[in-house]
Amino acid sequence: SSAGLTLCLDCDAMVKFSTLLAVAGLVLATAQDYQDLHKLGVNFAFPRPEVGNLAPKLAQKAASLGVVRIKLFVCDPWVVYQLRKYYAFAKAKLEIMVGMPQWIAKPPQGKPESPVDWDVVKACAKVMTNNSDIVTGVFVFNEPCVHGLCLDWGGRDLMDILGYYTEALKDHGMQVNVPFSSSCIFPLSPNKVSFFQTVVRLLNKTKSPITINLYPYLDYAFKPFNIPINHALGSEGLYGPLTQWSQIDMDIARVHNDLAKLGPEFKDTPVQIGESGWSHAYGAYPQQWESDFARKQRVYQVTTPEYANRFYLNLVKRLHSLHLSGIYIFELGSESWKPAAFPAYGGEKHFGISGLYENSSKSPWHIDNPSQHPPWTGYATMRPEDWKDFDEEQARLQTRVKQNPQDWLAVNQLKVDTSGAEKLRGKTVKDQLKQDEMQGKAALRANALKCTPSHHDMYNDLGKVPCCKDLVVQKVRCRETDTCEFCIPSNETSSKTLDKVAQKWQSNTNVFAAQPAWAKYATGAVSAAMFTAGMVALRRARSWNSALEVSIEEPRDSQISLETAILE
Questions:
Q1: Is the peptide bond preceding residue 549 cis, with omega within 30 degrees of 0?
Q2: What is the per-residue pLDDT for 466?
């Protein structure tokens, strides 16, 4: 009857609309907090020479964690090669910001009166251009104002180097940046205005954000009886009374306010955090006879894996809510030789996330979805010249092992390198990408068969393919009164069909992502209520249900070797 036909048409429209809402809502619900995870990078500092060069081991760890952005404190082609190699073995995306700190640019200690070593500065530009597929820019100096390098002769050297890199790299699309400490910028006194105007103008030429290092952990350690712990963590109401803003929220707002004070041309300059971290171990419990016992006791209580993990998960949320260009966690490996200095004391030694996330499935990056990354984030690959370096490196490692079979760094690296090369070598980049694409399609098909059936009109409209072509027809009850026909993929469904549908879904997702924040949340809530299953599995190759908690670890024995301590 016409009434029945109308009812079924209404049913068709409802199913189609609710399916679209479910897909968009579920995608947005998961992507809302985690779509920017490629912007969560790590500072890659180096251990002392006497413990051996652990760059290969740390590079392996970074790749296994899924970190995309690496910030170096050196501009060494060998280190860049190590990162390239292990990220290529892991088939992972990689973006490197090399470093030209003052102690390298103005050797030996980076003093304001020391002259610039222009040979080193220019050599770094060559390293960057030779690795332009994975190197995205350079950080010049480190917290220069703290070391007297913002004004007078030191300031002139900083401007000269920034100007040189800006001109040398202008055709390569690379960023030229400076990491400032919070005390460099705050407060923005009149004598700093002209300096920062000049710096930000140079940053704007390479579309670089202004970078600030923020350490709520150290600020809390400095005044543990004045700062609420949840204010430092960014966890409103979790470990204390509800606060309007976290400390990072307030600091970033202050940066934007200061940029506006510089003038209208600076107010929209993007902002990123160059360093921020939370120590996850302290060492032995402080004794009452120690000086500053009360402070040490309070710092000891919050220097745990639980607090550190919570801080980093809150940082992930700030990436999106504060519209940051990026955050670099400090740091990848711990520095156990550092003195237990005020204000963090024992906590100063254990910022390295290699120990905190010994199990990489507990790290924030575990829930990342590389398919959601912007198109300019690329995979690391081994080029012919890199394989040449690889062969020479393997020969050196084999010689080391023959001379000393107990050289555990060389032994372990040979094992990892041999395995990685066997899987990757002999295949061109094109062959490797083609194989990965085929595996992705197989996973897409397998997941599609597990999905809730979707109405054939959805395929017809979104995929631009004939209704139910290569699909299996199913009849299911709709509105508990009518029977409607649906279509789902079968084992014979062509990859072309699935690709077109998936691409259209992605296009619709991007439309939803452009809506205001309140609209996104409303859409997600409505869609979850209307059609909770959806077809989101077609676009998911990995599960989003991984646990975010990290188990609380006891501090390691303080007598363990330096080599092991660095990776903890």
A1: no
A2: 38
- Whether omega before 364 lies within 30 degrees of 0, making that bond cis, reads no
Strand order in the sheet with 210-213: 175-177, 135-140, 95-100, 69-72, 40-44, 327-329, 271-276, 210-213, 179-181
Q: What is the pLDDT of residues 482-512, one digit of tens each?
A: 444 444 455 555 556 555 555 554 554 454 4
With bands split at pLDDT 50, 70 and 90, how would you rate the model's confidence at 438? Answer: low
The residues, ordered by sequence, that sit 6+ positions from 43 with a Cβ below 8 Å of its Cβ are 71, 73, 274, 275, 328, 329, 330, 331, 332
For residues 107 and 111, give the distance between their C-alpha atoms in angstroms, rounded to a whole number. 8
Cα(52)–Cα(33) distance, rounded to whole angstroms?
39
- What is the rounded CA–CA span in Å between residue 276 and residue 329? 5
Angle 81-84-87 (CA atoms, 0-180°, nearest 5)? 145
557 sits in the region (left: phi over 0; alpha: psi -120 to 50; else beta) called beta
Structural tokens at position 238: 């979790």
Written as six digits, the tokens of 518 are 């309140």
pLDDT tens per residue, range 30-60:
444 455 889 999 999 876 555 567 889 999 9
Tell me, letter by letter, the H, E, C secondary structure of 363-387.
CHHHHCCHHHCCCCCCECCCCHHHH
**Cα 419 from Cα 86, distance rounded (Å):** 11
SS3 of residue 171 by DSSP: coil
CB 248 within 8 A of CB 276: yes
Q: Distance between CA atoms of 198 and 189, rounded to whole angstroms?
A: 15
For residue 330, give every residue at least 6 positions away whose Cβ sits within 8 Å of its Cβ, in sequence order, or none: 43, 45, 213, 215, 275, 276, 277, 351
Question: In degrees rounded to 5, what are phi and psi of residue 369?
Answer: -130, 95
| Strand pairing report for 454-455 and 482-489 | antiparallel
Question: Residues near 180 by Cβ (< 8 Å), separated by ≥ 6?
Answer: 143, 144, 145, 210, 211, 212, 213, 274
d(CA 159, CA 150): 9
Q: Is the dihedral of CA 110, 115, 116, 118 positive or negative?
A: negative
**Beta carbons of 315 and 41 less than 8 angstroms apart:** no
How far is 317 from 256, CA to CA, in rounded Å? 19
